[in-house]
TrEMBL record:
It comes from Chryseobacterium gambrini. It comes from the Bacteria. PROSITE patterns: RESPONSE_REGULATORY. InterPro entries: CheY-like_superfamily, Sig_transdc_resp-reg_receiver. This is Response regulator. SUPFAM superfamilies: CheY-like. Keywords: Phosphoprotein. GO terms for biological process: phosphorelay signal transduction system. Residues 1-67 form the Response regulatory domain. The modification 4-aspartylphosphate is found at D5.
Length: 80
């Protein structure tokens, strides 16, 4: 699971996400940002979006959900 800020110093979070996908990393990605979602998010391949400030409980729940989804994805690949 990768937790990625949408706005990073010197680079957009979307660029990091794109690089992860291009390099074949098959992982769940949670994007956290102080910016509310907008239309440019349609291009980004992420699994969850959190608007900061994010509580510890919200982050834990998002990571748990991502881990569960990753295990389901692994099981599906195993059978198909």
């Amino acid at each position: 699971v990768v937790v990625l800020d949408r706005q990073l110093p010197g680079m957009e979070g979307g660029e990091v996400l794109e690089a992860l996908r291009e390099r074949g990393f098959d992982c769940q990605v949670i994007v956290a940002s102080g910016v509310k979602p907008d239309l440019d998010l349609v291009r980004m391949e992420f699994d969850a979006y959190l608007v900061k400030p994010v509580s510890k409980d919200e982050l834990r729940a998002a990571v748990r959900h991502a881990l569960t989804r990753a295990s389901y994805d692994d099981k599906l690949r195993e059978f198909y």
